């Protein structure tokens, strides 16, 4: 029998009826962020750094690093145009350093989670100040123009996809399943 994540009624995620487009994006984004956190909860560095199947470098720790990098890329660099600093978890010899550098070391785990949480806090601060009317504003992405809403939906999609990966990774580690 598989172990479930939470007792009935104990799920910390919200499934309300958000009012407005921005509130809807915020609720989905917040729930997916929390899902990733729940999938990693209670695991040690070795478990978090455990790779899926060779030759893949996919691991829960790699996902956390990747999501920190993704938050930074989309919220800081694209939506706010802050491109002066180097991107997170980038390495000239490994284009997938967010995953490749996710080694099962407590210091790497601590850094990954601190970085991810810091990027989430910066993104949330920006989102708090964003007017709903600005969701249609265009921003440059790879030589093309996209609305802010398109970028936000992409970020939510990225989390949703990786939450599915996290589900499978966690089940392989200790059998835990669930939403």
TrEMBL record:
A matching Pfam family: MST
Domain of life of the source: Bacteria
InterPro entries: DinB/YfiT-like (IPR034660), MST-like (IPR007061)
Name by which UniProt lists this protein: Mini-circle uncharacterized 19.1 kDa protein
